[in-house]
Automatic annotation (TrEMBL):
Name of the protein in question: U2AF homology motif (UHM) kinase 1
PROSITE patterns: PROTEIN_KINASE_ATP, PROTEIN_KINASE_DOM, RRM
SUPFAM superfamilies cross-referenced by the UniProt entry: Protein kinase-like (PK-like), RNA-binding domain, RBD
Domain annotation RRM: ranges: 332-427
Record key words, sorted: ATP-binding, Nucleotide-binding, RNA-binding
Lineage start: Eukaryota, Metazoa, Chordata, Craniata, Vertebrata
C-alpha cells in the first residue's frame, strides 16, 4: 500500500485513547504524517489527524464518496506489532454490536522511507463524552443525555462481558457519539483481554481505575505478581465514575484519589447528589444515585453487572431531550427558525413552493435527503433539513447562519438529531423501524403530516 506525507486540515474527533493521547485534533504534520492511504485499491486522502498516542495515530480519511478513520500503529521498541495484533484481534471477535465501533478492515501501509505500518480502517465517529464534559463544565448534563449514554455503554459492556471480554480502559474519551446511528459507541480495545487471561499488567486510566486494578498496578511496579487478574467488574467501576462526572459536570480525578474517597466514597456520592438535587427531579436523582453507587463498591464481587444495571428503575423513566441536547450532539439534521411565516403554511401551493425553494438552497451545502416543515405546534413553521451525513449538516450550519430567505434573516440554525426531533415534536417514542427511514418518512409514520 502506497503512502506519502503531509496535510494540514483540522477536524474534531479523538479516536485513539492512550494516556498520552492529545485531547484535541491537530493539523497533520507534513514531515511525519501521510497525505493519502491506499486501501484495498482505492486512494483515501488524509483530512486531519484526530489523535496521537504512544503507539498509534488516528486520521480522518476520505475516498471522495465516504469518510472513515484510519488508526495507524507505530512499530514498537522491540520492532514488533503487538498493539496492532492485540486490538485487531479483539475487534474482529466483538463486531456486530451497535454500540461498538465498526472495524471495516485491516491493511499494511508503506511510507516513502520504506517503513511498513499496520492500520485499521474504522467507522468515523463524532464528539466524545470527554468533549461533552468540557462543554458543560460545572453544570452537568440532562437526565436524558445521562440515561442515553449509560444505557448505550451498558448494552455494549453486557455484550462484551457475555463474550468474556474486559474493555479495561473505559473513560470519557473512549465513548463517542455516532451522528449517523444517534447513539454512543465504545472505542479503543488496545488494553482489552479475555477474563482469566489478562495479558496486560497496567490497565485503565488514572481517575477511572478500579481499586483492584490500582492494587495490581502497584504490585507490578514493585515487581510482585497479584494473586488473580482483574474481572469485568473494573469496567463497571469506570462507568460509575463517568456517570458521576456527567451528572456533576466536574472532573473527579483528584476526588477519587483522595483519602476521603477511599474512606467513604458513598458519602461523597451522596454529597454530590444533594448539591445538584435542586436542578433535577427527585425520583430520577434517587435512582441514578443508587445505580452509580451499585457500580462503585470497593469489593468487585459486590458491584452491579452490566446486565443487572440495565434493569435499574432509572432506565424505566421516559426523558425527553432538551433543546440543549438537540444542539450538543452532532447529527445530520439542521433546525432553522424565523424562516417561514404562518400564512405560508396554510396555502398548499405556497407551502410546496417554500419546501422546494428551501431544499434547493440547502442543497448548495450538501446532499439533502429530507426536509420537514410542521404546520402545527409544536415545531410550527420550523424547518428541519436532513443531510446525508453530519459533516454536511455542520458545514451547512456554518454557512446558513446569518443568511436570508425571502427577506427573512436566519437567526437560529442549529443541529438536531433525527429521532430527537420527532420525539420533541410528537412527544412519543419513535417507531423501532425508524432506523434507515428519512425524517420525512418518520414524520408521516407518527402522524405529523
Amino acid at each position: 500500500m502506497a503512502c506519502s506525507s503531509g496535510s494540514n486540515t483540522k477536524m474534531s474527533n479523538p479516536n485513539v485513547s492512550t494516556p498520552a493521547m492529545a485531547v484535541t485534533p491537530d493539523a497533520v504534520d507534513q514531515k511525519t504524517s501521510p497525505v493519502v492511504f491506499e486501501i484495498y485499491g482505492k486512494i483515501w486522502s488524509v483530512q486531519a489527524r484526530l489523535g496521537q498516542g504512544v503507539s498509534a495515530s488516528v486520521y480522518r480519511v476520505n475516498s471522495g464518496r465516504a469518510s472513515s478513520a484510519v488508526k495507524e500503529f507505530q512499530v514498537d521498541a522491540q520492532g514488533g506489532d503487538y498493539g496492532y495484533l492485540k486490538e485487531s484481534s479483539v475487534l474482529e471477535k466483538i463486531q456486530g454490536h451497535k454500540n461498538i465501533v465498526t472495524l471495516y478492515g485491516m491493511f499494511t501501509n508503506h511510507n516513502p522511507f520504506g517503513v511498513a505500518t499496520h492500520c485499521l480502517l474504522l467507522e468515523l465517529l463524532d464528539v466524545s463524552v470527554s468533549e461533552l464534559l468540557v462543554r458543560v463544565s460545572n453544570q452537568g448534563h440532562s437526565m436524558w443525555l445521562i440515561q442515553h449514554c449509560a444505557r448505550d455503554v451498558l448494552e455494549a459492556l453486557s455484550f462484551l462481558h457475555r463474550g468474556g471480554y474486559v474493555h479495561a480502559d473505559l473513560k470519557p474519551r473512549n465513548i463517542l457519539w455516532s451522528a449517523d446511528d444517534e447513539c454512543f459507541k465504545l472505542i479503543d480495545f488496545g488494553l482489552s483481554f479475555k477474563e482469566g487471561h489478562q495479558d496486560v499488567k497496567y490497565i485503565q486510566t488514572d481517575g477511572y481505575r478500579a481499586p483492584e486494578a490500582e492494587l495490581q498496578n502497584s504490585l507490578a511496579q514493585a515487581g510482585l505478581e497479584s494473586d488473580s487478574g482483574c474481572t469485568t467488574a473494573v469496567d463497571l467501576w469506570s462507568l460509575g465514575i463517568i456517570l458521576l462526572e456527567m451528572f456533576s459536570g466536574i472532573k473527579l480525578k483528584e476526588t477519587v484519589r483522595s483519602q476521603e474517597w477511599k474512606d467513604n466514597s458513598s458519602a461523597i456520592v451522596d454529597h454530590i447528589f444533594s448539591s445538584n438535587a435542586v436542578v433535577y427531579p427527585a425520583i430520577p436523582v434517587f435512582h441514578l444515585r443508587d445505580l452509580i453507587k451499585s457500580m462503585l463498591h470497593n469489593d468487585p464481587k459486590l458491584r452491579s453487572t452490566a446486565e443487572s444495571a440495565l434493569i435499574n428503575p432509572f432506565f424505566s423513566i421516559p426523558f425527553a431531550p432538551h433543546i440543549e441536547d438537540l444542539v450538543l450532539l452532532p447529527t445530520p439534521v439542521l433546525r432553522l427558525l424565523n424562516v417561514i411565516d404562518d400564512n405560508h403554511l396554510y396555502n398548499e401551493d405556497e407551502y410546496e413552493d417554500i419546501i422546494e425553494d428551501m431544499k434547493e438552497e440547502c442543497q448548495k451545502y450538501g446532499t439533502v435527503v429530507s426536509l420537514l416543515i410542521p404546520k402545527e405546534n409544536p415545531g410550527k413553521g420550523q424547518v428541519f433539513v436532513e443531510y446525508a451525513n453530519a459533516g454536511d449538516s455542520k458545514e451547512a450550519q456554518r454557512l446558513l447562519t446569518g443568511r436570508t430567505f425571502d427577506g427573512k434573516f436566519v437567526r437560529d440554525c442549529k443541529l438536531a438529531g433525527r429521532s430527537m426531533v420527532i420525539k420533541t415534536l410528537h412527544q412519543e417514542a419513535v417507531p423501532k423501524k425508524a432506523k434507515g427511514m428519512t425524517l420525512l418518512a418518520i414524520a408521516r409514520e407518527v402522524g405529523l403530516l
